[in-house]
Amino acid sequence: MPEIIRRSRPTAAALCFAGFLLSFAACKSSTAPGPPAAQYQLTVAASPSNGGAVAKSPDQAQYASGTVVTLTATPAAGYLFTRWAGDAAGTANPTTVTMSANRSVSAVFTSTTPRHTLTVAVSPSTGGIVARSPNLAEYETGTVVTLTATPASGYEFTRWEGDASGTANPASVTMDANKSVIAVFTATVRYTLTVVASPTGGGTVTRSPDLAQYDPGTVVTLTATPALGYAFSRWDGGLTGTANPATVAMSADRTVTAIFTETDTPVIRLSPASLFFSATRGGPAPLAQAVSVENADGGTLSGLARGFPDGEPNWLTATLSGSIAPATLTAQVSMYDPFGHPLAPGTYATRVAISSATAANSPQDIAVTFTILSETTLTAFAAFDNTVMASTHDAQPANRVYFDTPLAVGADYIGSPPGYETIQAASAVLFDVQSQIAGRNIVRATLRLFVHTSRGDLSVTPLIRVSAFASLWNPATLTWNAWQTMQVHATGTAVQDAPSSPAIPVDLDVTTIVRNWASSAWNNYGLQIDSLNHPYPGSTSLQTTRFQSLEQFFDLTRRPLLIVEFQ
Do 215 and 179 reside in the same domain of the chain? Predict the structure, then answer.
């Protein structure tokens, strides 16, 4: 076979290099061509995706720079074209886009089918969650939405309320209008929250909401309020930190302690903080009374001064023993004005202020009350008094005789899981005045009670009621059970708000009762004192007021008093 010789054609570059065939100009003309013209992409979309379609003309994968493309939006059934978004704007349809860069255009469509909202909620808010499928902001008419309730820890699903009902879970709702559905959960466990102040006299702790037990997840706000001479320091136990107020989420039984620390700032303490004087016009003035002025924080309190916030009265002299505590304020009332004229019968009241520039609570007031009785007035202290009590958790108090305690009137509700203990109290008072009032014309009769201990819950205002017994009682044997069998007169009853402060005595109008005693229409079997309007507020509530009695008093003049004014 003859040998085949293959020859390759020399390149232009080689020829130029050799200098045989091409001139310099020819070599120059053999360089590569310039870059191609720019090409751009145009992306189109529909919003929502099922709302319609977008056509482009010309319809190409890429476009040369400067190409004008016409876009036409065609809505699907149940939709209408609204506007262009992205690299096109306005509402013109068709519209054009000039290609000078890669572009993206959306045609926005709006449904013409009625749409409805579905609101879902849970009760209580910590009880769980509700999922819905499909999960949309709005639903077309006829859409069936599946609701699934998932309880939180410590809860169980109970039922649906609102535009769904029953206990099925999941449940479905057909959307033919705006609808609202509530998933109701029930706690399977409840927790207690105990709050403590340390030291006990350092301050108080309030909680909101204030309940005996809490559902899981309940957030409770705790507020620590320091007493005078103390500052809040921190939380301890089931809550930590120094924030005040602070919150605690109930996921177990908890005990929280508010830690208070003493301050070095002096604090004025007065004992007693109120004075009561009583006398008969034309008779001798009552004896002077004293108030102790001390530094509640201990140590020395200097710069003490006495003042009269209501103006200096012409019937009272108040003298401070010195400017450094401990000191004594001596108060003396007068039966006459500065000109020697006898003061008119009535009740006079004022305040004496004790101040110090170094005390944190300056000034502090002493309430002073002076009652001048007319010459035709009878003032009598009780001859006998008793308290009767009963408890829903203990049968013993109802059979016990209370003759040497303060006079208790009211009802206390005390948390005692799983329920509450209710302690009720009433009192009986007897005045031996029959021989002094018999046959006389009574202008006015007043039962005056002085507070021994105010009720603990000042958010409610029980009523103190006084009535006349219609049957005899024995102070040595009077118990709650015996008291329940006694009769009282239906007329002559007097009612007064329970006092919110021990500073002022409680006066009850017993004129009708005493008039019936004086005329012998009724036998004088004494007075019954009980309470009205003491509802259970849903949590621990101490609504009992204790008054000073024959055996328990701060001053002899503050025992139960009957004041009778004659014509």
Answer: no
Residue 424 shares a structural domain with residue 507 = yes
Q: Same structural domain for residues 119 and 141?
A: yes
Pick left, alpha or beta for residue 495 (phi over 0 → left; psi -120 to 50 → alpha; otherwise beta).
beta
> Is there a domain that residue 424 lies in?
yes
Please tell me the total count of domains within the chain: 5
Residues for the chain: how many in total?
567
CA distance 567 to 379: 15
Task: Give the three-class secondary structure for 149.
Answer: strand
> Phi and psi for 478 in degrees, rounded to 5?
-75, 120
Q: Is the pTM here over 0.70, yes or no?
A: no
C-alpha closest to that of 342 among 308, 379, 373: 373
∠ at Cα 529 (532, 564), nearest 5°?
125
In tens, the pLDDT along 59-76 reads: 999 999 999 999 999 999
Residues of the domain holding 253? 193-262
d(CA 178, CA 140): 11
Tell whether 433 is covered by a domain. yes
pLDDT > 70 fraction of the chain, expressed in percent and rounded: 93
H/E run at residue 16: helix 12-18
> 241 and 203 in one domain?
yes
In the predicted model, residues of the chain with pLDDT beneath 70 are 1-35, 282, 298-299, 417-418
Same domain, 61 and 171: no
The CA distance from 245 to 240, in Å, is 12
